[in-house]
Amino acid sequence: AFFASKLEHESKHCNGKGFQRPGSSAFDRVYTANQNCGHAYPTFLAVLWCAGLLCSQAPAAFAGLMYLFVRQKYFVGYLGERTQSTPGYLFGKRIILFLFLMSLAGILNYYLIFFFGSDFEIHIKTITSAISPLLLIP
User: Fold this and answer.
1) Mind listing the pLDDT tens digit for each residue in 54-91?
2) How does pLDDT run across 2-13, given as a tens digit for each residue?
3) Mean pLDDT of the region 23-27
4) Domain ranges, residue 15
5) Of the candidates 63, 65, 135, 134, which has an alpha carbon nearest to the alpha carbon of residue 103?
6) How far apart are CA 50 and CA 13, in angstroms?
7) How many domains in the chain?
8) What compartments host this protein (predicted)?
9) Which of these, 80, 79, 81, 66, lies nearest to 131 by C-alpha position?
10) How many CB atoms lie within 10 A of CB 16?
11) Would the pLDDT of 98 be above 90?
12) 25 and 80 in contact (C-beta within 8 Å)?
């Protein structure tokens, strides 16, 4: 909602009709940031859901909240200069990687249970709970 409201605000402040606004770099930055965030959102939802379902809900929820905060930072950084958005982008990639690895660990645990009868769920939950606060380190 924040991204859409910023896009609408910039659209109203620019002269012209439609999305053809030559020379409006502020609108272009807001529009591009909104599109980038919109394109990354389905991937985020998929890995968040898989990590929470297959591995552990608490670290996945923490990582999900961190990701939403980081995307906000990315968007606001994109409104300034493009180099200001780089830390938010890299931080977001790290969180997506963490969620993906959680999903992978949950799938691996499932197959270990299925084929060998070994359950490492407690160990995986302990490791992910210990690693998730490390996501706060920039």
Assistant:
1) 998 999 999 999 999 988 888 888 777 666 777 888 88
2) 666 766 666 666
3) 64
4) 1-136
5) 63
6) 41
7) 1
8) Endoplasmic reticulum membrane; Nucleus membrane
9) 66
10) 12
11) yes
12) no
Q: Is the dihedral of CA 14, 17, 23, 29 positive or negative?
A: positive
CB atoms inside a 10 Å sphere around CB 124: 19
CA 50 from chain centre, in angstroms, equals 14
Q: Is the dihedral of CA 20, 22, 27, 31 positive or negative?
A: positive
- Inter-axis angle of helices 25-54 and 57-79, to 10 degrees? 170
Q: How far apart are CA 52 and CA 36, in angstroms?
A: 24
Say what the pTM is. Answer: 0.77
45 vs 50: CA distance, rounded Å: 9
Report d(CA 110, CA 40) in Å as an integer. 28
Q: Round to whole Å and give the CA distance between 31 and 11.
A: 9
pLDDT in the model for residue 124: 87
56 φ/ψ sector (left φ>0, alpha ψ -120 to 50, else beta):
beta
Would you state the pLDDT for residue 43? 92
Give the confidence band of 102 by pLDDT, cuts at 50, 70, 90. Answer: very high
Residue pair 102/55 in contact (Cβ under 8 Å)? The answer is yes
Find out whether 96 and 45 touch, Cβ atoms under 8 Å. Answer: no
